[in-house]
Specification:
- It is a single chain.
- Helix content is about 80%, strand content about 0%.
- It has about 160 residues and is mainly alpha-helical.
Length: about 160
């Protein structure tokens, strides 16, 4: 009859393995260690390590100040407003927003390159007969109409 082969593995010592890795680290990672030491020295020279040490030492006070600031009504309103703005931007189609963001720099460039003020007649003419200006008027009127409906709905009016 066949005899089983006994497998006797030496017990594994994780501490010894870590110690061996630590002893070999300077040779294997010399460039990285030198770079890290230079970074530490730079942080020390500029006082950043002292600042971090102070922040860690007074972490309870820093945390207290942060919590106090976060609990203020202004902070709560600010966070809520930020969430509403993010939701509004998320509801806008990216192509429509891209069209608007491309138009603003072009308009600013045209305004700053204008050597003199336009005449009253040119303003009236552009205001009434220029098809692009009329399209802009329609966009503004549509925005104002939508805003007015939202305001009226918020107050429970028609």
């Amino acid at each position: 009859m066949a005899q089983p082969i006994l497998l006797n593995l030496p017990p594994r010592d994780p501490r010894a393995e870590l110690q061996a890795r630590l002893q070999n680290a300077p040779a294997e990672h010399a460039e990285a260690l030198l770079s890290a030491l230079e970074l530490l020295q730079g942080l020390h020279d500029r006082g950043a390590l002292d600042l971090m040490r102070g922040a860690v030492g007074s972490r309870d006070k820093v945390l207290e100040i942060l919590v106090e600031a976060a609990n203020s009504p202004e902070s709560v309103r600010g966070v809520r407003s930020l969430i509403v703005m993010i939701n509004m931007l998320g509801a806008i189609e990216p192509e429509a927003l891209a069209t608007c963001t491309r138009a603003v720099p072009t308009a600013l460039k045209l305004m700053t390159q204008q050597p003199e003020r336009p005449s009253l007649w040119k303003l009236i003419r552009d205001f009434t007969w220029d098809k692009d200006v009329r399209r802009g008027h329609f966009a503004l009127i549509t925005l104002l109409r939508s805003l007015g409906k939202s305001l009226a709905a918020g107050k429970g009016q028609d």
